[in-house]
């Protein structure tokens, strides 16, 4: 964090970034972190420098990758002159377009490290054309450059884009990138996946469960716990809260090595009451612990019991116990904490 290059966001230059992508090795600001989450954890695993607990392996990996200066030399090796890097005051749309080009499409990348630069220097003059022709240099041009990549680079890009299981009736749907990039965030939600109880059997006598969380276009997942129908994850994951608050979708899968992961149930959490309570607390002068509200269990939701929203040591939290749906059995315990965007 003390290194000069890491004192500014790798993508827009904002000072004192409080977030990092442990998988890419860059320090980023809170606005850019929301776009990184939309890329998916297979591309960018976003962690807070202060709010998340880092494992030794995650710290070692960040050190190994080298930080902003090293990573930007690789991912911003050949930015064409008609594309401008975002600034601290850039819009969410400008950030989203640039970040996706940089990390997902690898359009500016160094050909070393097996990355293909889709805008080689010899073609940069061709890209800086008169304003009358500028409309032709959008995504169709990107596609033509993509088609000129080496076979190795095309295969690598295809693998990155095909990450995850195939479409099924139980898969959490993803919104288009064009919509996702325009979303403004109003806060953060820390989801602690505590444990599962009496989960369904998907192997011979047991299962290898993990949990996938979805909030809008963001996807995160827990680690896999082998051979356990009563797994204890106690694993915290962070998601950005979109302005129009969607439900938090929870899906449990059984990890398979040689076939598609098996579905083990799903549930939805209405986080709007928690967000409302957190906003009300921000504007108040309350200090003592107290109950702020609750999400009432009913036949219309998946709650086993009421989800009580409490204020504890200045933190707005909620514990929920979910009965998994579209499956023969299973209960999931989850703890939620709503954080203001300023953190």
Automatic annotation (TrEMBL):
Q: Which InterPro entries match?
A: ARF_GAP_AGD11/12/13, ARFGAP/RecO, ArfGAP_dom, ArfGAP_dom_sf, C2_dom, C2_domain_sf
Quote the CDD domains the UniProt record gives.
ArfGap (cd08204), C2_ArfGAP (cd04038)
Can you name this protein? ADP-ribosylation factor GTPase-activating protein agd11
Tell me, what's a Pfam family for it? Answer: C2
**All copies of domain Arf-GAP, residue ranges:** 1-116
Q: Which domain of life is it from?
A: Eukaryota
Name the UniProt key words of this record, in alphabetical order.
Metal-binding, Zinc, Zinc-finger
Coiled-coil intervals, chain numbering: none
Q: Which gene encodes it?
A: AGD11_2
* Domain C2, first and last residues per copy: 166-285
Q: List the taxonomic lineage.
A: Eukaryota, Viridiplantae, Streptophyta, Embryophyta, Tracheophyta
